[in-house]
Amino acid sequence: MADKLTRRGFMAAGGALAASTAFADKDVAAPSPKPPADPFLGTGGVPLVVGDPCLQVPGETTMGVSWAVSGLSKGVVEYADNPDFRDAKTVKSGGYGLVPIDVSALQVRLTGLKPATKYWYRTVTTPFVDYKNIYDAKLGAPIVSKVHSFTTLGTGAVAHFCMISDTHARWDTFQMMVSKLKEISPSAVVWNGDATNTTQTKATAVEIFLNPPIEARDWSADVPVMFESGNHDFRGSWISKKEEVILPRDPSERRGDQWDLKWNFAVRLGDMALVGLDTGEDKPDAHPKWFGLANFEAYRRAQAKWLEEQFARPEIASARFKVVFCHIPLFAAKDSPEYPHDGVKIDPQDFAHWSRECAELWGPIITRSGVQLVVCGHLHRFHFDEPAPERPWAQVVGGGCGVNLKKGRFPTVVEGKVEDGRLRLVVHDVFSKRVVFDRLIDA
Ligand SMILES: [Fe+2]
Ligand SMILES: [Fe+2]
Q1: Where in the chain is the domain with CATH 2.60.40.10?
Q2: Distance between CA 48 and CA 142 in Å, rounded?
Q3: SS3 at position 150
Q4: What spacing in Å lies between the alpha carbon of 80 and ligand 1's midpoint?
Q5: Nearest ligand for residue 399 CA
Q6: Spacing of C-alpha 390 from chain mean position
Q7: Domain 2-151 coded CATH 3.20.20.150
Q8: Residue range 349-370, pLDDT digits in tens
Q9: N or C: which end of the chain has fewer CB within 10 A?
């Protein structure tokens, strides 16, 4: 892992490297340190490599920070509401009791923040050189990250989001997307599923979510990301543990009976309410491909109850614009070739183009609640459905990682912002660098 990270020019391990350069002044080269076979026994003196921080699960008063490490280490986040770090606070990983340490990813959640407020922060990561047992464990030199900043969500925040989707670890098109995100600089990014393909190891998830092998590895260090799973994000022998890499929403946001709705969000961003749902896998639970591992039908019903409750919250109900995000589209026109592929029956194409089950469970709530826009991915192409009398919300489909211009396939970033009291929806083709759609939506 350390070698892999170093080859990619990952963040320099200042403190640990500084310690190791003491050998360089001597005439006789010191033997290279060797890590123990079990990484949980320590780094063995191999310089620690630390990734750029990734902002996750933002809220009005909370912010998650996750980052990749190349070996056994502990980490804290220092933050303040001023760039000089006056009265800075230091926050450890985890909650009460023992502070978690790890060999590949560290996670810290900041709480008690002020809404719609800018904060400056940095990570401090310290390797365990040796951890055979707690009585003779040995720490290395701490590594301090660059200073980054974020702004918490809330009614006072700027109503401006971007959506990416179906990135599928295709790094060339992912770089195109994050370059556009850096240029737009929205208040928050929704990563609307299918970030992965099939995930067999934690290292794969760390690479995708925390340490992508692209030029702009720090793409989520200053803009927070709200992740919602796509169907692929449920595939692979390791993927059920993805919260070790993507922090779940703050526990205070959900009741005990909604504990498994780990990434659903309903948050205010200025005049907009953003609501995120998980459409789950794209085939019925009884499909033989799932080996009995699918339990998404109950999950979708639980989310219908959750959704109804979120729209009843005064701060969500009072938003001028309400935007729903989910991976699989909720609508296909009856006369379209997509319509028969609804994810409910065993499909000869084996690919759902829309989710009839989610549409039937969530559609009436979305309609009743005055949602203007539903933002989806999954189809790997741009598509827009105009609102209709029986479905007063528009649906935009974006994202995608492939390029086939003859078939109209190109990766897009979907942008939404409130301008002069209207919701402006812009779809950017990041391959050909053009705007393919620009629409003003009224409340
Ligand atoms: Fe996809
Ligand atoms: Fe998908």
Answers
A1: 2-151
A2: 10
A3: strand
A4: 38
A5: 1
A6: 33
A7: no
A8: 778 999 999 999 999 999 999 9
A9: C
